[in-house]
Design a protein that fits this description.
globular; single chain; alpha+beta; 6 helices
Length: about 240
């Protein structure tokens, strides 16, 4: 099996600058989407640090054996988190900066996903879409009983992140492993897409545009902008072929 990839990022219709960062390397089966936390200065710096840090670590590493993939992702993200926190402490104008992160690594017949925050990775297969990752948001944690309402500070927003790079000295990373099948499409995106159009709409767009795979990210971005484009929008699509 092989994986083909296409990606794009857009500032959206409401924001003045793009705090999202995107990187992907199709021959290596490696991709990253990071969304700098809005409402905090330095979001674009944090997301760029996350993407560039992972990219450099991956490119400079020797061949990573299968059993080393997950430890590599966890240790690298933990180190980058520390770098973001420490830079925020040194530079007061960007103190508290943070970012979400979704990193994909395709190896043999599996996909490994490292996830922190509320950027999402979906799986689309035979016209059905499934959200693989879990949003690390206050509302989601409360709804699942993982966070008592009494633990919230007064004025805390339901959409606020419980986990992200840069929020604390330690960063918990969710790791997913997915068996690959020909015809499967993986969609990784910032919440500028998932917050503007429904999962069903995303699936319909994929169904209608799979024949024009290279343009899929732009088609999805255009749909999010047509729905209001309230945030930066980043989309990475990965298709599994024989």
């Amino acid at each position: 099996m092989r994986v083909i990839m296409a990606g794009a990022t857009d500032v959206g219709r409401r924001r003045k600058n793009n705090q999202d960062s995107l990187y992907y390397d199709q021959p290596q089966g490696f991709g990253i989407v990071a969304d700098g936390i809005g409402g905090r200065k330095g979001g674009e710096i944090a997301s760029a640090m996350a993407v560039n840090g992972l990219r450099k670590s991956f490119v400079s590493s020797d061949r990573i054996r299968y059993e080393e993939i997950n430890p590599f992702l966890i240790s690298t993200i933990d180190r980058i988190n520390q770098e973001i926190v420490e830079r925020g402490r040194r530079e007061k104008e960007i103190a508290g900066m943070g970012t979400t992160l979704n990193c994909l690594l395709f190896a043999s017949d599996k996909m490994h996903v490292a996830h922190v925050g509320d950027s999402r990775t979906y799986m689309y297969y035979k016209k059905h879409i499934f959200q693989l990752t879990i949003d690390h948001s206050v509302k989601n944690f409360i709804d699942r009983g993982w966070l008592p309402k009494t633990a919230l500070q007064q004025g805390a927003k339901e959409g606020a992140l419980v986990r992200a790079l840069g929020l604390s000295d330690h960063c918990d990373v969710d790791i997913y492993e997915v068996d690959l099948m020909p015809g499967m499409v993986i969609i990784t995106c910032s919440d500028g897409l998932s917050g503007m159009i429904s999962d069903r709409r995303i699936a319909q767009i994929l169904t209608d545009n799979l024949g024009n795979f290279e343009e899929l990210p732009k088609v999805l971005i255009n749909a999010a902008n047509a729905a209001g484009g309230r945030d930066n929008i980043t989309v990475l699509v990965s298709k599994v072929e024989e």
